[in-house]
Amino acid sequence: LCVADLESHEVYRDDALIDAAPDKTFRILFNTFTADPSILFSDQGYVRYMTVVLTLNNIGVTNNISMVFPDFPLLTQPELIGGDGMFCNNTHRPERCKPRHACFCLHRLKVALNDVVEMSLIDDAEVVRDLYHPFHLHGHRFIVTGMGQLPEFRTQSEKVDFVERSRRYARTMPSDHNPPYKDTVSVPSRGYTRIRFRADNPGFWLVHCHFEWHLGIGMSFVLQVGEVDQMKKAPRDFPRCGSYKPDIYSQL
C-alpha cells in the first residue's frame, strides 16, 4: 500500500490543488556517489563528504548539484543576497563546473507565490537497495500523487521520461479521493515519488533528504517561494549569522 493510495482524515478536499494543472513542474534526481580525491582535496575549496569505509568517500547530489550553503540564513537575512548570480540549478551552473560532473554551489529552485507546484523525486541509484530516502519539505505541506519503482534504465533521461509518462498517463484521481497531507515522504529505492503543494508561504525553504549525513554531504536544495519583498522580515533584534573571520594578517 503506497502513500498515494491513502485517504485523508480531513473532511475538506482541496479540489483546486488536487485537480489543477501545476504551474511549475520539477524533476529532481538524487543520488550519492564516490568522489575522487582530486575533487575532495583541491584548491577549489572545502568539499563536504562522508567517509563510509576506508577510502570510500561519498558526496550527495540533487540534479548533479551538491549543495553549498551560504554563510548567512537566506530566510532571515535576504538583504545579503548578491543577486541571482549566487544561485545555481541544473540549467545555470557556474563556469567552473564541468559538464557531466557534480557541481558544488547554492542550489535554488524558484516559484511564484501561490503557484501549484509538482515535484517528482527520483532515486537515481543503479540498483535496488534496502534504503528508502525520506525527503522533507520545509514551510509547506504536500499531497502524494504518485509513487513507484523504475525499470533498469541506464540514463537519467530515460528515468525522467518514464516518470513523465507515468504522470501523463496516470488515471485521474477519483472525485472522492482525498489524499493526506505530509511534509516528509519516503522515495522507493531506485523509484520515484510525486508530490504536489500550493506554494503559499513566501520565503526560502530547504528541501532535503532527512538522513542527516546525506543532508550534510549536499543532498538538498532551496525552494524560493515568491520575491523577497513578499516575505516577512525578521524582527530587528533577531540574531544574525555570518562568517566572522579574523584578520590574521594584521596580527602577524
Set down the secondary structure blueprint.
Blueprint: H1 15-18, E1 24-34, H2 37-40, E2 50-53, E3 56-62, E4 65-67, E5 87-88, E6 103-111, E7 116-123, E8 133-137, E9 142-149, H3 156-169, E10 181-182, E11 184-187, E12 191-198, E13 203-209, H4 212-216, E14 220-225
Characterization of this structure:
The protein is mostly beta strands and 252 residues long. It is 11% helix and 33% strand. It contains four helices and 14 strands. A seven-stranded mixed sheet has the order 2-3-1-7-12-9-10. Strands 4, 5, 6, 8, 11, 13 and 14 form a seven-stranded mixed sheet that branches. The longest helix is centred in the middle third of the chain and has 14 residues, at 156-169. The chain is globular, with a radius of gyration of 20 Å. The N and C termini lie far apart (66 Å). The relative contact order is 0.24. The model has no long low-confidence stretch (mean pLDDT 89).
